[in-house]
Amino acid sequence: MKKIIAVFDGLKFSNSTRDYAIQMASENNAHLVGLFLDDPFYQSYKVYDLIGEDGGISPEKQKKFIEADTRKRDKASADFEKACRAAGIQYTIRHNKEIASQALLQESIYADMLIIGGHETFTNRTEQAPTRFVKDILSEVLCPVMVTPVHFTPFDHLILLFDGQPTSVYAIKMFSYMLPALKEHPARVLSVKPMGQSGHLPDSKLMKEFMKRHFPRATYTIMKGLPEVEIVSYLRKEKLSPLVVLGAYQRGMVSRWFRQSMADLLIKELKLPVFIAHH
């Protein structure tokens, strides 16, 4: 049984992350860990909210804010537990009170997969997805990651991005090994080649031989042009709801087009779940 960790900010609980995590755990008979990162340096209030009439920090105000945050975090945890019970899945709830980024990277060592919202900051700030926190986690994480959009839409097919590089094949391998039940969904291999090159799939014979063992009913689409333009345009026209699989997020990773910016671009421009795996 696989171990999937769903990452939550108890002060800004993500229903979308909860629902995607439950879908993944349900379809793959996985154990789901609800990881609530209760960073000790992160509260819902700001220092100036604590100023009393005498101009100093008011212990009474601070106590009320702390109690309100505790209630909000407890409610988020109860919400997750209720949803897991309703879905009939095996689950664990864990509150980690260490620094959020350090705690999450440590947890990733012992997880098969992480699920996190692309909008998470674990601060009072609101940032455009993918946030700085998410980018840092993706570049250092030690297991595959599924980045979720703000709103949940059940996915009904798979888009497997492939550029002929080992990193893109590795992502497809990890997805196949990690989530075998999802291979029942229709799958399409999407590749973009520069103008002037042949329209053949890179390493066509080897790739199709590999795919036949993992996604035997997969179809193939090859486009010409700039990947950043063509992939986003293609996915925007999708009438159904795909889950996108791609590799190579590591800093310094060299690839023809699965650069670090590709994952950023897909998370930023599209409201789709994205599965990312790198060496």
Explain how this protein is built.
This protein is of the alpha/beta class. Helix content is 38%, strand content 20%. The protein has a ten-stranded mixed beta sheet, sandwiched between helices. Strand 2 (31-37), helix 2 and strand 3 form a beta-alpha-beta unit. The model is unreliable at 249-260 (pLDDT under 50).
Itemize the secondary structure elements and their pairings.
Layout: E1 3-8, H1 15-28, E2 31-37, H2 59-87, E3 91-96, H3 100-108, E4 113-117, H4 132-140, E5 145-148, E6 157-161, H5 166-178, E7 187-193, H6 204-214, E8 219-224, H7 227-236, E9 242-247, H8 260-269, E10 274-277
Parallel strand pairs: 1-2, 1-4, 2-3, 4-5, 6-7, 6-9, 7-8, 9-10
Antiparallel strand pairs: 5-10
Helix pairs in contact: 1-2
- By DSSP (H or I, 4+ residues per run), the number of helices equals 8
- Parts with pLDDT < 50 across at least 5 consecutive residues: 249-260
Choose one word for the global shape: elongated
CATH T-level topology of the largest domain: Rossmann fold
Strand order in space, largest sheet? 3-2-1-4-5-10-9-6-7-8
Going by CATH, what is the homologous superfamily of the largest domain?
A: HUPs
| First-to-last CA distance | 22 Å
Secondary structural class: alpha/beta
Radius of gyration: 21 Å
| Number of structural units classed as domains | 2
Number of strands: 10
Residue share in helix:
25-40%
Would you summarize the structure shown here?
By secondary structure, the chain is α/β, with parallel strands linked by helices. The chain has helices spanning 15-28, 59-87, 100-108, 132-140, 166-178, 204-214, 227-236, 260-269; strands spanning 3-8, 31-37, 91-96, 113-117, 145-148, 157-161, 187-193, 219-224, 242-247, 274-277. It has 2 domains: 3-148, Rossmann fold (3-Layer(aba) Sandwich); 157-277, 3-Layer(aba) Sandwich (Rossmann fold), CATH 3.40.50.
